[in-house]
Structures are given as structure tokens and as C-alpha cells.
């Protein structure tokens, strides 16, 4: 569920390791008065100033209350970037969220506009990227003071053997220390980076750009934000597209085990493709190759492999390196290169993939706060099981559901068990009763947001319409499949929904 924001850079990044004009001025349209509570009027009626930025873009910053139930309290900043429509008959704004949670919508639109939306959509909409509260250029969640601290958190090792009493104690101390650092460095914000608050921010931003309804494209986690928005503000929901859907009724463990199964399924699909090629680093059947990977991970867990920069590649980092290329079938060839290198004693390509996943540069600099925001938002969006007996049961279920990578994704509940802020969101179905049509896109081989979540979300929504892409990889719109692209563009540009149960 991590962001698809950096997918556009993955192939180039791994390949390297393994081998201005100003925007037109657009006046803000005036809206008829809405029923805005008087205490919220200063936020909904604030003036925002769009300034030239990036290449042919405009940027602006809006203010919102940290706590929407206490608008007289502290405020935060929300960063936006927009690419202005070139058509004189513009259809309004299209807000885009790339997922995560924790991914920067500002970076996504500023750096990957053509990947985010089609040229026809760019022509007819002001395409707006925004950083949700706690993320990127908006007022950020902060948990570490240095890149070295983040390296230790993501890539460090516990001294004790995995799942020994000493290992659990070390892990508990590390997660508690990280949570405490987040609380000290982020202050009151940490209690209010939940998706409900982000949806309220989004409604304010909609109003500030002069749109009567929110037109929205959400990828991955962005589908949860879109679904919660439609549930909270159904009358304000315009043309909404949710690609790579999450099911809002899923618990934290449901999400973890379903994703583990999804990545394991994608890993088997990769191996089936790999084994048909002479250059594949595996031999035999898919089952035999899966067993080889399991043995490799077990070996790395006991005896990490040194990289050229001195870091040690253990099983957890290797699982991240495996997962990252599975987001996109176009990167499967680089996964083969990673396995080949590790089998030959070279950890550098695996670290390149893991670093890409965490947006860490070759110089060891993290490009954003996406990891900190990812944890903070998830801890508020999913109530955490604190019974360690249940953790053990979940761990066994996870290992059974995904025998190869599941053992290294277990015990995740511990990350939020001592979080200093309680969860705000609870799992539950959404109907968005009173909204307009909402397109939900699911990819049959999506590892990060498995297809059944799209089916479930589309069924929950009163006006949900499912588009099925029969293929591999995470999300489907504006990639190589014209069937999906044309259906989405027709909906965004004309409001016409595709035929029932469209399969592409």
C-alpha cells in the first residue's frame, strides 16, 4: 500500500545501480454560498495566493485547524500544486492523491504529471496535487533528527534471534522509543493525522479553488481517503475515481495478511515468468524457486550480507527489496538481477530497491517524511490489537497465509501498540449515500491492494462502478491499457460511466 509515487523512477534507479515557462493565470470562480458553520468560515473563506513554481505549475498554501473539532486552536499548513487546464472550457479542478499513506501529492503532480493523468484530462482540468496533513510540504509529522536515525530504524538489527523473548523485548523498546520521539517532535499534530481529518481538509481545499463538488483521482491509500470523503460529504462528491482500492471495512490485520498473500501471489507470477527465460536465477518449478527464496531469507536472517557502503542486508531489508519491484511488472527483470546479485554475494542491488521504496538516495539522504507519516496515519486509522496472545495467533495465520514473506511481516501490531495517540477511524463499510457515480478500479494481480478489495468497495458504495483490469502490478489507470484509460477519461470528461462490470 506504500505510494506508487516513485514507480516512475524505479526502472531508471535500478538500471543505474545494476548496470520553464509560467502557467496561465486562472481567476477563481465564485461559488454560491454554502452552509458553512460560522466557526469554520475563517478557513473556508481564507484567501490563498497561487505563485509560479516548478515548470509551468502554480503553488499555494492553505491553513486548516489541527483539530477540526476545535477550530479556534492551533493551525497547520496544507501545500498544493496545480497544472492549469489549457482549454477555455475547463471542467474545474481534479484533486489527485498518489497513496501511501504518506506520499506527497505535490511531488507526484510536479514531477510525474503525465504518469498521474492523461493529456486529455490535463487539458480540461486544473490538476491539483496536495500533501495531506502530516505529509511532505504540509506541516509534517517528524520522528527522527537525522538520516542515520532513520537508517537505524529501517535497517538496524536486533541482537537476539528472531522471536526469542529477548528479540521481543528489543523490538518493544525500539517501537516505544520511536513513538515517543514522534510525540515529542510532532506535538499536537500527531493526534490529528487521521484520514477523517484529511477528508475535512480536502473539502476545504475544494471550496477554496471554487469547485461546487470534488472531482478526485485517488490511487492506493488515496482510495480510502476518497471513500471516506464521499461518506462524509456525499453531496459534495463529484466525479471520483478510486484506483487500487482499499476496503474501509478491513482491520489492520486484514490488510496485512491480504497484502502478504497478494505479494506472495505476485512473487509466484514473477517466478513463472522468470523460469521461462534462460537468464532466470532460479531452476525447477515455481514451488522449488519459492523454497529457494525462503531458504535465502532464512540465511540472511542469521548471516546478513555486507553491502559496499557497509550496511548489512538482512531478511527484512531483502523482503522490502523483493516487494518493491513487484509493484510493476515492468520491473520484474530487475528483481531477477537482484536475486542474481545476492546469490553471488552482492547486496548493493537489493539495497537500491529497498532504498527506492523508502525514498533514500545513494548519498543516504531521505527525500521526504513518508515513512514517518505512513506509520503515524496508519496508527490513527486502524485500532490496534494490544493483546499479545492475539499477536501470536496473527503471526501464525500470517505465516500460514504467506509462508515465504509472511514470517518477516509478522508482529506489525507492535508498532502502534504504544502509540501516544488513540486510533480515530474504525473499520466499517461505506455507502456514500447521496453521492454521484464513483469508479472503482481493481487489478486482478495487484499485490499491494488485492483485487477483492476493489470488488468489496464497489459493492458497498451506493453508486460504485467496478472496472476490472486483468493483469499484474499496482493500479491500472493511465498505464499501457487503453481500455481502462478510455473508460476513466470518458467518465472524468463526460460523466459517462462504463458498461456494468467492465473487464479490460
From TrEMBL:
What are the protein's UniProt keywords?
Hydrolase, Signal
Record-linked Gene3D superfamilies: alpha/beta hydrolase
- Which Pfam families does the record cross-reference, listed alphabetically? Abhydrolase_4
PROSITE patterns named in the record: PROKAR_LIPOPROTEIN
Taxonomy, top ranks, is:
Bacteria, Bacillati, Actinomycetota, Actinomycetes, Micrococcales
Annotated protein name in UniProt = Peptidase
Instruction: Please give the PANTHER family that the UniProt record associates with this protein.
Output: 2-SUCCINYL-6-HYDROXY-2,4-CYCLOHEXADIENE-1-CARBOXYLATE SYNTHASE, AB HYDROLASE-1 DOMAIN-CONTAINING PROTEIN
Q: What range(s) does the Peptidase S33 tripeptidyl aminopeptidase-like C-terminal domain occupy?
A: 402-504
Instruction: Determine the domain of life of the protein's source.
Output: Bacteria
Q: Name one GO molecular function term.
A: hydrolase activity
| InterPro entries recorded | AB_hydrolase_fold, Pept_S33_TAP-like_C, Serine_prot/Carboxylest_S33
Q: Which residues form the signal peptide?
A: 1-22
Family designation:
Belongs to the peptidase S33 family.
Amino acid at each position: 500500500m506504500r505510494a506508487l509515487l516513485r514507480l516512475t523512477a524505479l526502472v531508471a534507479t535500478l538500471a543505474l545501480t545494476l548496470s520553464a515557462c509560467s502557467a496561465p493565470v486562472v481567476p477563481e470562480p465564485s461559488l454560491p454560498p454554502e452552509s458553512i458553520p460560522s466557526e469554520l468560515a475563517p478557513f473556508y473563506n481564507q484567501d490563498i495566493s497561487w505563485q509560479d513554481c516548478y515548470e509551468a505549475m502554480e503553488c499555494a498554501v492553505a491553513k486548516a485547524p489541527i483539530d477540526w473539532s476545535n477550530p479556534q486552536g492551533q493551525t497547520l499548513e496544507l501545500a498544493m500544486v496545480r497544472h492549469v487546464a489549457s482549454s477555455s472550457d475547463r471542467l474545474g479542478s481534479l484533486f489527485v492523491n498518489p497513496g501511501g499513506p504518506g506520499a506527497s501529492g505535490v511531488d507526484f503532480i510536479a514531477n510525474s504529471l503525465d504518469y498521474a493523468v492523461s493529456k486529455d484530462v490535463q487539458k480540461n482540468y486544473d490538476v491539483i496535487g496536495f500533501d495531506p496533513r502530516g505529509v511532505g510540504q504540509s506541516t509534517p509529522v517528524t520522528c527522527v533528527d537525522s538520516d542515520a536515525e532513520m537508517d537505524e530504524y529501517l535497517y538496524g538489527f536486533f541482537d537476539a534471534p528472531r522471536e526469542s523473548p529477548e528479540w521481543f523485548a528489543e523490538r518493544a523498546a525500539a517501537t516505544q522509543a520511536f513513538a515517543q520521539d514522534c510525540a515529542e517532535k510532532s506535538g499536537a499534530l500527531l493526534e490529528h493525522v487521521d484520514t477523517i481529518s484529511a477528508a475535512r481538509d480536502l473539502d476545504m481545499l475544494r471550496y477554496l479553488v471554487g469547485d461546487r463538488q470534488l472531482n478526485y483521482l485517488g490511487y492506493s491509500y488515496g482510495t480510502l481517503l476518497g471513500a471516506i470523503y464521499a461518506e462524509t460529504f456525499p453531496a459534495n462528491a463529484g466525479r471520483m475515481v478510486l484506483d487500487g482500492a482499499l476496503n474501509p471495512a478491513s482491520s489492520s490485520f486484514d490488510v496485512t495478511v491480504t497484502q502478504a498473500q497478494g505479494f506472495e501471489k505476485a512473487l509466484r507470477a514473477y517466478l513463472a515468468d522468470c523460469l521461462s527465460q534462460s537468464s532466470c536465477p532460479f531452476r525447477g518449478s515455481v514451488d522449488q524457486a519459492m523454497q529457494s527464496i525462503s531458504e535465502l531469507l532464512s540465511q540472511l536472517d542469521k548471516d546478513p550480507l555486507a553491502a559496499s557502503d557497509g550496511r548489512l542486508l538482512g531478511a527484512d531489508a531483502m523482503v522490502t527489496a523483493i516487494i518493491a519491484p513487484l509493484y510493476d511488472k515492468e520491473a520484474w527483470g530487475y528483481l531477477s538481477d537482484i536475486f542474481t546479485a545476492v546469490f553471488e554475494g552482492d547486496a548493493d542491488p537489493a539495497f537500491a530497491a529497498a532504498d527506492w521504496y523508502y525514498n533514500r538516495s545513494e548519498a543516504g539522504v531521505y527525500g521526504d517524511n513518508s515513512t514517518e507519516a505512513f506509520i503515524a496515519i496508519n496508527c490513527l486509522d486502524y485500532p490496534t490489537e494490544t493483546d499479545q496472545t492475539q499477536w501470536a495467533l496473527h503471526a501464525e495465520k500470517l505465516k500460514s497465509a504467506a509462508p515465504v514473506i509472511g514470517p518477516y511481516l509478522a508482529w506489525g501490531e507492535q508498532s502502534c501498540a504504544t502509540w501516544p495517540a488513540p486510533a480515530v477511524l474504525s473499520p466499517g463499510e461505506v455507502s456514500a449515500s447521496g453521492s454521484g457515480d464513483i469508479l472503482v478500479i481493481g487489478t486482478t494481480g495487484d499485490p499491494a491492494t488485492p483485487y477483492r478489495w476493489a470488488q468489496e468497495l464497489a459493492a458497498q458504495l451506493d453508486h460504485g462502478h467496478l472496472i476490472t483490469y486483468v493483469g499484474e502490478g499496482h493500479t491500472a489507470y493511465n498505464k499501457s491499457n487503453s481500455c481502462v484509460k478510455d473508460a476513466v477519461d470518458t467518465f472524468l470528461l463526460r460523466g459517462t460511466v462504463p458498461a456494468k462490470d467492465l473487464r479490460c
